[in-house]
Amino acid sequence: MGIVLKGIGIGNKISIGKVFLYNKEKIEFSQEKDELPFEIKIRQLEESIEDVRRELEELYKSIKETFPREAEIFLFHKGILEDEYVIEKIKSYLAEGYSLVYSIERAFNEIKSEFEGMEQELFRERAKDIEDVEERLLKKILNINTSSLSSLPYPCIVVAKDLTPSDTANLDFINLLGFVTEEGSITSHTAILAQVFNIPAVVGVRGIIDQVKKAEEIIIDSGEGLVILNPTEEEKHFYSIKKDEKDKISRELIKFRDLPAITSKGRRIKVFANIGSEKEAEIAINMGAEGIGLFRTEFIFLDRNDPPSEEEQFRIYKRVAEIFKDKPVIIRTLDIGGDKEIPYLKLEKEKNPFLGVRGLRLCLLERELFKVQLRAILRASVFGNIWIMYPMVAIKEEVEEANKILEEVKQEFENEGKTFVRNIKVGIMVEIPSIALSLEEVIDIIDFVSIGSNDLIQYTFAADRTNEKLRYLYIPNHRAVVSLIKNVVDVCHKFGKEVGVCGEIAGDEEYVPLLVDLGVDELSMAPSKIPVIKKKIIEL
Ligand code: PEP
Ligand code: MG
């Protein structure tokens, strides 16, 4: 058996091929100080920056039609080179008599450390972009040709410690079978580009560089996040069959990505995506999402030491709204609690967290936290088509209370002269049987409903959704669940409101026919599920 390593898979493809180990030439710096006059170094700096800016502009233009959002990475890189803060830092070292190469390296290192020290992974990932720009600039100054990745010598799987976004965009697509990196995460630009260009990739594979030196051939299974070094003949045979099957399916599926999901009876079902970050929004739109049905905003609050500020939240919501333009972006207000703990909020330990102060209940108690989020959402509302959705609603009074707070924020905005969408749509998640059965009471104060089947099922059967032993009580098509969903759909339609489903069943081929049959208007799912679910609906 070959050596098997595990990482984070991007996409769902298999590749079998020769290894191409990509060793970036480390740029060696000759000297710290030199005798060259300051003016000459400044001129050389400015000319090189100009050349690199032009290069980036070209790269941007070359992919902007096909991949507008990815192309923006190169505009972002260009922006780094136009940033006064960066230029002034380099110039200050030049003024102290340091060489041009040394000054650039030192300035960029400092800026990179600033990004690396930031709490949010998204910002830490930007350190890679800084590195990328620095390398381009140094290569220009030292007259080093750009990487060999743009013309690979044979069909191969590229293995590297890490790849920059430029490396990924420059890759020789004719000979590239996939790539594996030792570093990287799902939110890195490189991973996103891999997904967009449909290149099978596994990132974050610890130890791959050491191990791969002894390997000639490898298999990557990006669906499983697996890398197999020096596979046996049996393994190659097994994976080549699996590969043919997957390739066939994905060739057929991709045709469905941009099609409207219309059933044979002529009913159009909206196919939306569930996301937890701005980056996933980019993936979602590229997978054919017609809107965001659920933005799990609590993910922005995880893995950090304090809550994101209004400004930080505003920027994220604004960006997602801009990506989706006039398509709906349903932002779910914080759904903390249950299995989503946020240590820095220092919430009281509860005996039954799933039955405790979670979702909207928590927001009604922690009003400041809630108001900051509502302010950020309202500010972003003018940049697209944002809707607000409250999670974990049990009774009408909770919605009234939440709407009162929302109204307060709107009043404050009006007093402050801020622009926002006053009649922003407000909806609720139906996740608790009490609200599913009393929806008529609340329907006139909301604009839409989305059924959170994950919780609705757990509360219907009183079975903790995280307890593997109770998996047998996860029965989406049980008559109890079906009759709750049916009631919700019927009430919504009677009052002319739209109803969606954003729990896992919305992206599950097994249950989609039932949901369509029950009359659901919209299904929201993980972006990767969109093509297969559209196909399912079209074939209904
Ligand atoms: C649900 O409960 O179905 C849902 C979509 O919300 P979450 O999974 O985030 O609880
Ligand atoms: Mg839920």
What does this molecule look like?
This protein is of the alpha/beta class. It folds into three domains: 3-24 and 148-252, Glucose Oxidase, domain 1 (3-Layer(bba) Sandwich), CATH 3.50.30; 38-142, PtsI, HPr-binding domain (Enzyme I, Chain A, domain 2); 269-538, Phosphoenolpyruvate-binding domains (TIM Barrel, Alpha-Beta Barrel), CATH 3.20.20. 47% of the residues lie in helices and 15% in strands. It has helices spanning 38-64, 68-82, 84-95, 100-116, 121-142, 165-170, 189-196, 208-212, 233-254, 278-286, 298-301, 310-324, 360-365, 367-380, 396-416, 433-437, 439-442, 453-461, 479-494, 512-518, 530-538, and strands at 3-6, 8-10, 14-22, 156-160, 176-181, 201-203, 217-221, 226-229, 261-262, 268-275, 292-296, 328-332, 385-390, 425-430, 448-451, 498-501, 522-525. It has an eight-stranded mixed sheet. Helix 1 (38-64) runs antiparallel to helix 2 (68-82), helix 4 runs antiparallel to helix 5 (121-142) and helix 14 packs across helix 15 (396-416). The two termini are 43 Å apart. The model has no long low-confidence stretch (mean pLDDT 89). Bound molecules: phosphoenolpyruvate and magnesium ion (MG). Magnesium ion (MG) is lined by residues 391, 431, 452, 454-455.
